[in-house]
Amino acid sequence: MEEERAAAAVASGVPPGAGGTEEASRGMAGATTMKVVAAVDASEESLRALSWALDHVVQQNPGASVVVVHAHRTEHFVYPVAAHGLAYAPPMAVDSMKKTQEENARRVVARALDVCAQRQVTAKAAVVEGDPKEAICQAVEEMHADLLVLGSRGLGMIKRALLGSVSDYLAHHASCPVLIVKPPKAHAKGTASST
């Protein structure tokens, strides 16, 4: 048994005792690739986070695959007709709003893919619908991501308490490690006080 393991290690170019057949077989097949999912929206913070991940994570892991994910909320547009709660949504208005949302999603994804192309990184894109917190969480799980990267808007405590934080939710509920890229201190200070 030990001789077979040593022979397999030698055949793979791994010296005997330096990892055994399991590591040798992984070496022969090639290292598993890391899947990095970057959540992007129309904010500069999300593009900054994507850029940071490309420079500091993807460049350090040759062969890593990158998926840019954009979640857009599916809005329902209705107009009150009467005081008793009936509502009506003209089909043309609904179609127009859907087209606008789809166009905005395409624009966001195109900007993110341009950031990847500038760094000569090939990336795929996915647009998911629904509440961004839940939609991104589900997409990460379905994609079997190894790392989720997203930007932080640097909301203050009051805004975060009132609005909720997508990054906070994902940090606690995503099925993989989450990297939250904060805005640079100079940027945060510049927006906080302009006296």
UniProtKB/TrEMBL annotation:
Under SUPFAM superfamilies, the record lists: Adenine nucleotide alpha hydrolases-like
The organism sits in which domain of life? Eukaryota
Coiled-coil zones: none
Span-the-membrane segments of this chain are none
Q: Which Pfam families match?
A: Usp
State the residue spans of region: Disordered: 1-27
Matching InterPro entries:
Rossmann-like_a/b/a_fold, Universal_stress_UspA, UspA
Pinpoint the UspA domain residues.
34-182
What is the protein named?
UspA domain-containing protein
Q: Name the source organism.
A: Lolium multiflorum
